[in-house]
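Deliverable D4.2, example record:
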Amino acid sequence: MTDVRIKRVYDEPAHTDGFRVLVDRLWPRGVRKEDLPCDVWCKVLAPSADLRRWFGHKADRWNEFRDAYQHELHASDQQAAIKNLGTQAGEAGYRRITLLYAARDPELNHAVILANVLRQVLIN
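Output generated by the structure prediction step:
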């Protein structure tokens, strides 16, 4: 079983993070690529550009955003990307995946949703 956690890209990396995966579609503002320790940038698992723009991190849109993003993640190509992520982490010798995101809100962001989907898919 793989442990999945989330963390802001602006937080200090820790040796306990395991396999670090940036899951934003856009590179985080103010962060140079060489300064962000991450094993892979998996922008394919981020919400679609249209969905991301529509949500705009507005709390009153959270439930609808969550449902729409989960629907996107259940597409067959997304399921393959999720399983591939688990495989990559395992091949690198990690049992923990830390999803990195740039959003300010630690509870209302796509990484929370993606982490839950990853847990469900990687357990089976």
